Recover the amino acids of this structure.
């Protein structure tokens, strides 16, 4: 009879330690998830800014190209200057879109590390030691 309370006490102590470990693991995973969420938000804002810059430069290039057509009858140096500015703007817009494309292709999936850690946890707790 004296062994039963000791056995129950040992089980409750082990359950408490296991609960503490599980809580710590959950806390670590949630911190990782929050970090990845911040990183995803930063990548989204960067991509949005690059897209906006690409649109602005492309539109500026188109506007200057149209102005070059309007001033077709103007002196020949003015025409070359407008055409050169239009080409430069179009090249800048194209370069920004290329950078945006590479930026989006290079990034991994959002929450990829959290999913990998959860898979490791599942494997760790599902195997019989």
């Amino acid at each position: 009879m004296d062994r039963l309370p000791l056995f129950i006490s040992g089980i409750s102590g082990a359950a408490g330690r296991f609960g503490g470990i599980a809580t710590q693991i959950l806390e670590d995973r949630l911190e990782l998830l929050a970090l990845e969420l911040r990183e995803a938000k930063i990548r989204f804002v960067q991509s949005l800014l690059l897209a906006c810059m690409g649109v602005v430069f492309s539109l500026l290039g188109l506007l200057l190209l149209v102005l070059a057509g309007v001033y077709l009858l103007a002196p020949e140096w003015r025409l070359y200057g407008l055409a050169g500015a239009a080409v430069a703007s179009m090249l800048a817009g194209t370069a920004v879109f290329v950078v945006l494309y590479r930026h989006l292709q290079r990034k991994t999936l959002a929450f990829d590390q959290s999913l990998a850690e959860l898979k490791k946890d599942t494997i760790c707790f599902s195997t019989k030691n």
Residues 3-70 form the longest helix (68 residues). The CA atoms of residues 40 and 110 lie 6 Å apart. The helical segments are 3-70, 76-106, 112-126. DSSP finds three helices and no strands in the chain.
